[in-house]
From TrEMBL:
Ranges where the DUF6737 domain occurs: 8-63
UniProt xrefs under InterPro entries: DUF6737
Organism this protein belongs to: Gloeocapsopsis dulcis AAB1 = 1H9
Protein name: DUF6737 domain-containing protein
UniProtKB keywords: Membrane, Transmembrane, Transmembrane helix
Pfam families the UniProt entry points to: DUF6737
């Protein structure tokens, strides 16, 4: 029998939803907030949801897709 390659969720995503674009967008939003306002608490308010979004789409979501049998049926 042949071995199956692990499924990569990134093969099914468009260019704007790839890891590099997610990281670039998150860093730009957080850095842009700091450059524009230079207020720590405001940048923190921007950073918390952005980091949660990045963490979900870069860490949690790919593992969920890889562990699920959606593509193996």
């Amino acid at each position: 029998m042949s071995e199956q390659k692990p499924i990569s969720v990134w093969n099914y995503k468009p260019w704007w939803c790839q890891p590099w674009s997610i990281l670039l967008t998150g860093v730009t939003l957080i850095g842009g907030s700091w450059i524009l306002f230079r207020i720590f608490w405001l940048t923190s308010l921007v950073a918390i949801p952005v980091l949660a979004w990045m963490g979900f789409f870069l860490l949690i979501y790919p593992r969920l897709v890889a562990s699920d049998d959606l593509f193996n049926k």
